[in-house]
Design goal:
The protein is an alpha+beta fold. The protein has three domains: 83 residues, Rossmann fold; 141 residues, 2-Layer Sandwich (D-amino Acid Aminotransferase, Chain A, domain 1); 59 residues, 2-Layer Sandwich (Dna Ligase, domain 1). It contains twelve helices and twelve strands.
């Protein structure tokens, strides 16, 4: 079977995608596939794929164009089976503000925030500090600001940062612990706590060796673990996702009661976002959780290829 691995792309996450794509291509060759790597660009990817004529496309792209439904639409037009989520789910999950509306409808706690013009946010005063400003449609912690003090220098930097987009998300900063859950198919695997070595889980903490410590299957209050797994599966279905996703949370245990109620658990576990194209680098969380469950990196990549389909739609979407 011939597999085309799309990597690179044109987003701010290009460097991450190149590493993800190369790692997945190497793993798939180890599993016996005929692999062709394509440094994907909007102007050339359709012709490249017609030339290669793959049986399956492994989407190793991240960020704008690769993760937001654009390349998925091209793959649909070419009628090629591909990995990860389809057009509608990719567009919805990539739009943090719209995705949060759907999650709330399914009883999931999310940060109470809004989108606003970048220039308006840069005037300050929209939310009390500390708060977070981030793009409404990208990942890898690019152009993310945790504002503890509205200094003129920081406000000017946000005003000039085109990586934020025209209407970024601004939301309260959630204190506590960083958690993440992988969903593989329709099953949540486990909960990992991410302990950044710096002040917060920024780009270097995600992708630089030693930038963060991962505690896989972390010991949490039983009700918190159960809800994190349950809500990750609910979000995966509610957004119409396929294949592999990763859901990120903040668990606010800064004033955790000795005998927490159900309300304490629901309000304390805040879902930040769902990633339809989670990282597949050597330091990434999804391969780590899969390995913890007995699935090697090569077996994970093989599962994703075998799971690929066209049309790419969720089998059991949650209404």
């Amino acid at each position: 079977m011939k597999v085309a691995v799309l990597k690179g792309g044109v987003s701010a996450e290009r460097a991450v995608s190149l590493v993800s794509g190369e790692a997945c291509a190497e793993a798939l060759r180890g599993e016996g596939y005929d692999v062709v790597e394509i440094d994907a660009h909007p102007d050339t990817v359709a012709d490249d794929l017609r030339c290669v004529a793959p049986d399956v496309v492994f989407n190793g792209l991240h960020g704008d164009w690769g993760e937001d439904g654009e390349v998925q639409e091209i793959l649909d037009r070419l009628e090629l089976p591909y990995t990860h989520s389809g057009v509608a789910a990719s567009r919805l999950a990539m739009n943090k503000d719209r995705a949060k509306d759907v999650l709330v409808q399914h009883g999931i706690t999310v940060p109470q925030g809004q989108t606003a013009r970048r220039a308006l946010i840069a005037n300050g005063g929209l939310l009390p500090t500390p708060y977070v400003v981030k793009p409404n449609g990208s990942g890898s912690s690019a152009s993310v600001y945790i504002v503890t003090e509205e200094t003129p220098e920081l406000l000017a930097k946000m005003r000039d940062d085109k990586g934020l987009g025209d209407e970024p998300v601004i939301e309260p900063f959630i204190p506590g612990r960083e958690l993440t859950v992988t969903v593989l198919g329709d099953r949540a695997l486990c909960v990992t706590e991410i302990v950044p070595q710096g002040d917060w889980y920024d780009y270097d903490a995600k992708y630089v060796d030693g930038g963060s410590r991962h505690i896989v299957d972390v010991d949490l209050p039983e009700a918190v673990t159960a809800l994190a797994l349950k809500n990750a599966e609910i979000a995966h279905r509610a957004l119409g996702c396929c294949g592999v996703t990763r859901t990120d949370y903040r668990f606010n245990d800064t004033e955790w009661p000795e005998n927490p109620t159900e309300s304490d658990v629901v309000n304390g576990l805040v879902m930040l976002e769902l990633n339809t194209q989670p990282g597949m680098t050597p330091t990434s969380l999804v391969p780590e959780q899969c390995q913890h469950r007995g699935m090697s990196f090569g077996e994970l990549c093989r599962w994703m290829v075998e799971d690929a389909s066209w049309p790419r739609r969720a089998l059991n979407p949650q209404k």
